[in-house]
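seq/struct pair 1
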Amino acid sequence: MRAIRAHQREQQRSPAALPPNTKQQKVWTAMRILRTFTLADLAATTEVCEKDCYRYVHPLMRAGYVAATRERSLHRRVYRLVRNTGPRAPGVRRLTVTDRNDRTVHQMAPRRSPRS
């Protein structure tokens, strides 16, 4: 029990600890640097495939972290980071996005139904 409390205190003292080097963290860091980007831009700068970039960016868009702009670049959708909360990448779950910087949980907007 003492070890757990000591670990919790240590985490509270060092909020600037380096985030892990995961795919999501690489994509998040690239989005923070680029501000406006395409999936191809993220894939090129992070060495993460476009499909994995999409799997991370799309839920962030549904949670309000990223917005799609009206402009296009070489027939690709252009995105813009609108909620930059800090260096740690938000965690994406099935229906929620957990922000590790401000410790909040955001619900994703419902998916649009396909046009009939």
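seq/struct pair 2
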Amino acid sequence: MRIVKVVHYIKLLSAHFTPHPNHPLPTSPGRFCAGTCHAIGRVTGECNPSRTDCTCSEQTVSPRQWATCLDTGICSIYCVRKGFARGKCAGPTGWDCNCVTNKSDSGEGE
């Protein structure tokens, strides 16, 4: 019951929130919005022209993609634990953790 009250309180507060016209999004809004959208599991995001809001893509990432590629360091740790040299998030959306070996004849893993 208590969590319901907290959620209700947050909804009330957010209903009155509007961005301040003198304080738009940070000076690198594209990166800010992409990062914000990544945090909620969207493939990408962009800022509106006035830099007051982010628009996230409708396309979502899988739980595995989100867990391994929210940060490139996580992908590397994941791959090192599997015996590879490192990991790199790549692929069409940049959300696929590819494990890489240092051996020249082996190429990439997953």
